[in-house]
Amino acid sequence: MRYSGFRVIAEALTGHKGWKPVWRDPVPQAEYDYIIIGGGGHGLATAYYLAKEFGQARIAVLEKGYLGGGNVGRNTTIIRSNYLLDGNEPFYEFSLKLWEGLEQDFNYNAMVSQRGIINLIHTDAQRDAFTRRANAMMLHGADAEMLSREQVRKLYPWLNFDNARFPIKGAIAQRRGGTVRHDAVAWGYARGADLRGVDLIQNCEVTGMRIVGGRILGVETSRGYIGAKKVGVAVAGSSSKVMAHAGMRLPIESHVLQAFVSEGLKPLIDGVMTFGAGHFYVSQSDKGGLVFGGDIDGYNSYAQRGNLPVIEDVAEGGMALMPAIGRVRLLRSWGGIMDMSMDGSPIIDKTPVEGLYFNGGWCYGGFKATPASGWCFAHLLAKDESHTTARAYRFDRFLKGLMIDEKGQGATPNLH
Ligand SMILES: Cc1cc2nc3c(=O)[nH]c(=O)nc-3n(C[C@H](O)[C@H](O)[C@H](O)COP(=O)(O)OP(=O)(O)OC[C@H]3O[C@@H](n4cnc5c(N)ncnc54)[C@H](O)[C@@H]3O)c2cc1C
């Protein structure tokens, strides 16, 4: 079923009885050419681009729960390409360009909203660092702008500009950054993949891998054995668990990241804003709730919920920046499991097992990467070589010491 304005009007006049399920519920076949493990944003985008851009067929996505129940439906929906390092900036800019045409591409309303993002500056040294970043972004063809304190004041006069510890001295802005309705991204890719014949198999947990003579032959699942010529793993926070089935130990730790939404408010903030002196980022949903988050919980965990110290830390960050929200009520908080890599950057690569490919290590920045990650992983699966923008994201960077450490924190996953 194609969506259009005409269709919406016709359905509205006939009691919305004509809408059909957006994807099929197929029974797993005995064998596929490609199995993608993980029905999150990255797995679904990979299947979609494999079929659409690389002309591949006989593809299945195996998801242990329901499509979009993982981090793709739990994040704070921020997209941007304001990275500094050579390995990262071209990839995230490629992703932002794909976001810009995504809704037309898969004919689904994902509410891509380029409402702009600003990162606040609180010290002169930070201004120097952000100016360097803005220059690096522009060298890679992205947009960047430095804002003065007065320009920021014009945007958001209610910010705490004269906080004794963290006065606001300006900001770096990326006008093309913004937000996207996260679960609609999963639904749009799922629908697009299904339309091209991809089998989306839910409630199908991968519990083992059949590897003979260094080659993968298929996967054991909660719904039986399924054969495959190639298997791509895109399971985000469960990366270490799933790759353990192939005997691999990854340079990745799993941590919980929490997020929060307030009660609905009148329009307060029309873009995305990040605090430059603490870990706090905020935007306002179309329903009026402030959507915000902060740091990961400081210990390893596979639980999809977090703990109180981080809630307190996020609330403190919010209050330091926006004292006006002091009496706003919190509506909900939730958590997702983050695949934190050693240098804070992702991995899209082959593995030592023939036919087995890995995509992960997205830390808490993988939502914005969804289109490019899917495209580059599909490229790798179909052509057996890395896409140009993802060449830096190979396992051997850890062997060669070529870390892509955007934050400059060293090999400490919980600090990235
Ligand atoms: C609170 C929060 C806020 C965030 N905010 C942002 C943000 O603003 N911007 C941004 O860019 N990123 C953000 N992120 C990060 C981003 O959401 C993730 O990096 C990204 O969604 C991970 O990729 P995914 O969508 O494929 O993961 P997921 O949606 O988690 O998909 C992985 C899937 O694999 C499935 N799976 C696991 N094990 C198995 C198995 N054995 N068999 C079959 N299936 C399996 C899971 O059920 C899951 O559905 C945030 C994350 C969280 C939790």
TrEMBL record:
Catalytic activity: sarcosine + O2 + H2O = formaldehyde + glycine + H2O2; sarcosine + (6S)-5,6,7,8-tetrahydrofolate + O2 = (6R)-5,10-methylene-5,6,7,8-tetrahydrofolate + glycine + H2O2
GO cellular component terms, A-Z: cytoplasm
Keywords: Cytoplasm, FAD, Flavoprotein, FMN, Nucleotide-binding, Oxidoreductase
Catalytic activity, EC: 1.5.3.24
Coiled coil regions in record: none
Primary location recorded for the protein, binned into one broad class: cytoplasm
Subcellular location: Cytoplasm
Keyword rRNA processing applies: no
GO molecular function terms listed in the Swiss-Prot or TrEMBL record: nucleotide binding; sarcosine oxidase activity
Example of a GO biological process term: tetrahydrofolate metabolic process
Alphabetical list of SUPFAM superfamilies matching this protein: FAD/NAD(P)-binding domain
Top-level enzyme category: oxidoreductase
Family: Belongs to the SoxB family.
Protein name: Sarcosine oxidase subunit beta
Organism: Tabrizicola piscis
